[in-house]
Amino acid sequence: MTDMDVDVVVVGAGVLGVSSAYYLKKNNPAKSVLLVERYGDAGQGNTGRGNAMFRDTFTSADNQILAGSSIDFYLHVQNRLGVDVGVDLIGYLWLMGEKQFRAAGKHLNKMSRNGVRHRVMGASELRRKLPELATSQRSEESRLMQLEDCAWGVLGSKCGRLAPEKLVRFYLDGFTRAGGSVRFNSSVEGLMVGARRSLGIDGEPFAWQDASITGVKLAGGGRIRAETTVVAAGAWNNSVLDPAGVDGHVKAKKRQLFAVRARSDSRLQNFMLSEGFNGSGVAPFIILPHAGIFVKPVKESGEFWIGCDDDLNRPFLSYPATDLEEYRAEEDFYDKSLYPVLTSYLPLFRGKRPDRMWAGLYGYNTLDNMPYVFAEEGLIVVGGDSGSGVMKGDSLGRIVESVYRQGERSEAELFGGRVYLSSKLGFASRDVEREEWVL
Length: 439
Ligand SMILES: Cc1cc2nc3c(=O)[nH]c(=O)nc-3n(C[C@H](O)[C@H](O)[C@H](O)COP(=O)(O)OP(=O)(O)OC[C@H]3O[C@@H](n4cnc5c(N)ncnc54)[C@H](O)[C@@H]3O)c2cc1C
Known about the structure:
Elements: E1 4-11, H1 15-27, E2 33-36, E3 53-54, H2 61-79, E4 92-96, H3 98-113, E5 118-122, H4 123-129, H5 140-144, E6 152-156, E7 160-161, H6 164-177, E8 181-183, E9 188-195, E10 211-218, E11 223-231, H7 237-241, E12 251-261, H8 266-272, E13 285-287, E14 294-298, E15 303-307, H9 331-345, E16 356-364, E17 372-376, E18 379-383, H10 393-406, E19 411-413, E20 419-421
Parallel strand pairs: 1-2, 1-11, 2-8, 4-13, 11-18
Antiparallel strand pairs: 3-7, 4-6, 5-6, 9-10, 10-11, 12-15, 12-16, 13-14, 14-15, 17-18, 19-20
Helix pairs in contact: 1-6, 1-10, 2-10
Bound molecules: flavin-adenine dinucleotide (FAD).
Flavin-adenine dinucleotide is lined by residues 11-17, 36-39, 44-47, 49-53, 187-188, 232-236, 240, 255, 257, 360-362, 383, 385, 387-391.
């Protein structure tokens, strides 16, 4: 490929890259914006391998705003603009033991104060609406696993699922319609570093010059010179940034999903169609009281997707493999880590095995598990969403664009007119509330 010049190059066409590219082009129509992606299409990285659930039931006020306004935008796209992005408000049902519920009290009060809609359900209501749920844990196995009785449920209503491939397509189509360009099957090998005020001397930048990122080098040759480079490479941010001396601030961890088919089992089918939680006539996304194990009903494929985000003993990866197929789901993990808890609370899953399973990567910002958007000379970086990039994708794209136009201390206007100080997500004067309800 020959060299080219653009105003902005965006690296990575996952949800964060396409949303950033969309707002960059939409709000700066005179600028040339090029989106570069290693895979053959957008959303083929971790965006396409996730659960694509969304919630505003966060304990962190920052997360409430970032996710809440993104969800409002996704609802707007689907209900007002008439573009199907698969949004379905099935709700999140957090099941809790007595102690957990008491500890959650202060968070629930804060959610109420901040307008995060939720409803508390007692054990008798849970038993009535979910007769298959074993609220009482008296078995020897439950005692060994220290499972608590399921005493309470908290149902978040502005929570649900969406179709990530449709959401990515919405942003990508909008971006190209506005005149943005895309280059698939192009891998960025590294960033170009130059002098802000170049003297045209070989070997620049020297230590006495102000250095700046001046674009990207592509694998196989070719350079894209850009006034601004936006890196949205997700779990691979370190691989793109670290060699240029910019800290990528991300560590990846493998995450797995196991799909159990409900079609041939009438009990599972009835459970899938549990009433009384949402307007969709399906069970909500259920989080069991132990180890964050979750069960997601997927009505159209007649499956339940089951998983959990294990912590200790699951290695961090600073430079993950480029081929996600290297990360395989472990059947053993389903059998030994998920199944015993799953079947203690939901005995109807006894004897059920996953029909398919897959894995992807979370990109953690290990500082506080909150996303970041930061700027260096000629560079803007977004990532570290720590497993919730889809549900915060719209806000983060708007913040990237705001940083581009007005700098790291800009006031970004999120959907619905809410203003968010971009510097809260930077590292120079970071100011975010940690999240307590991590999934
Ligand atoms: C199992 C699992 C469950 C999840 N569940 C949820 C959920 O319920 N809700 C939620 O909000 N989030 C969830 N997530 C997290 C969510 O998928 C991520 O937060 C989101 O996809 C991050 O988007 P991204 O654009 O940063 O990353 P990605 O989608 O991975 O995109 C990064 C892109 O950059 C490209 N790239 C990287 N390096 C280069 C390079 N050198 N040159 C060119 N291109 C490059 C990659 O090919 C990739 O397409 C889940 C993730 C997993 C794995």
